[in-house]
Amino acid sequence: MEIFERMESEVRGYCRSFPAVFATAQGSILKDEDDREYIDFFAGAGTLNYGHNNPVLKKRILAYLEKDGLLHGLDMATEAKRKLLEVIEETVLWRWKNKYKIQFTGPTGTNAVEAALKLARKVTGRRNVISFTNGFHGVSLGALAVTGNQHFRNGAGVPLGNATFMPYDGYLGPEVDTVDHLRRLLQDKSSGLGLPAAVIVETVQGEGGVNTASFDWLRRLQGLCREYDILLIVDDIQVGCGRTGTFFSFERAGILPDIITLSKSLSGYGLPMSIVLLRGEHDLWKPGEHSGTFRGNNLAFISATGAMEEYWRGLDFTFQIEEQGQLMDSRVREMRDRFSRAGEAPFEHRGRGMIHGLAFEKEPSLARDVTKAAFKRGLVVETSGSEGQVVKLLPPLTTGKDLLEAGLDILEESVGEALGTDKAKIAGGMV
Ligand code: PLP
Fold this sequence. Notes:
alpha/beta, CATH 3.90.1150.10, CATH 3.40.640.10, 2 domains, four-stranded mixed sheet
């Protein structure tokens, strides 16, 4: 590890959480240079929904490279892009055919968020954007302005403006309806809140601590946006592409955002690629007005096409995610109950589909203790939340029951270790 510490900036992060030098990976298994295996419950922060080096996608990538398919294409028309557009229309946009246009942005999620915010401001002629407590949208300045976490905001070096934070669903406890709260502020000409250009929201806050917005809350949020002519942006960068069961995380809420951002698992293979889906009537961009050298990662288009064709024709994959999600849900609940003492649970469990969180709100440092103990046992799992208080489970959606169980077993032992209770005692009913 010496050269990483000597040469790489102090800004490095995940290599501190997972101190190993990784060499190969397949499916949900990572291997380090000493051939030690780790089960991956992190999946590149949600980028590897179809697993590492997915063989079906790899075949397509290799064939494309072999035939000297065009790799870098700015935003030129290419065969690979045409095929991708056709497949997106056929597999995930068929219900809303001709409703959305697609903007290819620079390669990372934050590039898509920047484009979405710029467009919303352009369309409405307004500046302010509403975002939510614990929201995370990226670390370039525009996206950072709508990101709540102080740790990231402190890195900006300039004031972050044109954004107002509102309480997310459940933030003020179950009794307070935070959409009503926003409505009140919008109604009141003296609230200090001007009419915003947009509201940007995650349906499940991945980085913010696996906070889930109810479908009803999302519907009412959309209703409020429509009422006040505010654009609704759903940032589906982390929990889109199937993480919660359906391709878009908002499908079951029955909403239809004005703008959607996608990235992370979109290419399906960990190749950088981001897009903005915008409702046709909002397409006020002038040619070339928003740009970027790396908007045409054609290799990513090839793997993205493969992922759509392989996983999103029909409902089988959704059922598979649901089944595995239920397994995660019941195992985490069992853990919570098993480790409870005097009726008090050591953590709060939250999640949807195949993203779950163990939130150690009372003793945040326990979450890091759990992930450290898990890593020692061969499980890669990260924390999230404002204080890193949530152990976030994000396995590839293709993990399969046996490996999922094996990872959850390690997690359970690790929670036991962090709480200072070993499994033998628990099994014997001593705690
Ligand atoms: N939006 C959401 C919801 C995210 O979770 C992330 C990254 O975690 C981003 C935006 C930023 O994406 P990127 O890190 O690729 O810039």
